[in-house]
Structures are given as C-alpha cells and as structure tokens.
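Researcher: I'm preparing a figure for a lab meeting and need a structural model of a single chain. I don't have an experimental structure, so a prediction will have to do for now. The sequence is pasted below. Please return the structure as tokens so I can convert it later.
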Amino acid sequence: MEVQTFILGPLQTNTYLLEEENKILLIDPASKVEKIISILGEKRPEAILLTHGHFDHIKAVDGLYQKYHCPVYLHEADETMAREKRSGLSFGLVSYLSCPVEHLKEGKMQIGPFTFEVIFTPGHTRGSVIYVFDDCIFTGDTLFKGSIGRTDLEGGNDREMKQSLQIFKQFQKDYDIYPGHDFPTKLSYELASNFFLN
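Model: Understood. Here is the structure written out token by token.
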C-alpha cells in the first residue's frame, strides 16, 4: 500500500491518500477540495475515513462528497460536533459537515482492497478512532511524534485519553505512525521516548 501525505489547511493538518491496486482511500481531507481532486485525476476515492470530527480535519469532505458521492465514515460520538455550524469558531474559522456519514464500528473493516481495523480511542474527542493497517497506524490527533492530542478542546477528556493511550502498548509490531499533524514516527520510538506513553 502506498501512502501519500498532504499538509493542508491553516492548522497544517495531515491529509492521507492511500493507494492499493489502483484504488484510493482518503483519510482526514482537511482543506483545498480542488487540490485533492487534481491529485486524484481520473481516480475516485472508495471512501473517506475520518479520525475525528474537529473542523480542521473535515473542511474538504463536503466538496469531495459532492464530486464523488463516496461513503464518509465517522464515529457517531463525533457527528453532532462535526455538524455544528459553529465548529472552528474559537479559531476564527468555520468548517462543518453537511453530507451523509456512515458510523464506524470497532473491529475489522474492508473497503475494496483495503483491510484494516478500527479502534475507538476517545480522549481528544468523544469519537476519536485510529485506523490500523498491516504496517501502519493512522492516529489522528490521539498520538503525535513525541506528544499527544489536546484534551482541553470540545469533546476532550484527560482520563479517557490516558486509557486510550494504553492501546499502543499492546501492539506486537513496530508500526509506522501517521499522525494528524506534524511528522510520521515509529511505534517503537514513541514507546521508548514519548513521555505520555511512559
């Protein structure tokens, strides 16, 4: 599976384009609909996966849905927040979902040639999830290189975040970690050096 990263939007959010067998998945299309459409060219996304419902991870979703009518997956605990028209106002920005969404369920999931696991990781938001593929994990704003997502924003909970972080200690492989912001990292590096995992 090929992973491409695009840093989009005023908060420098990582948007991921996954390609396997000429099929595409998008994770957290943060902004710049026309740029994403241009990158896709003749290809169409099989689905859009959202790690959570914060405004800086969803701005391009409605425009992409209007173009491709592909399913959009979000945990239902974040749907109300993602649809609120005041979403992002505290940052002087507005971004919210109006397209239909399908609710994520924990466990194995298959979309076209993509097989992965959805794991519920509340803490940054009530409905945060991570996506675990064969060799990599897309962690959204749950885990960053050397840090973790904030718990003082809407939907955040410090106790739940601490519980969710324990999940990373249970993995048996040294996954590549693709976070919602900043640089990729390795699970082994985070387990050894990330203060919040120790």
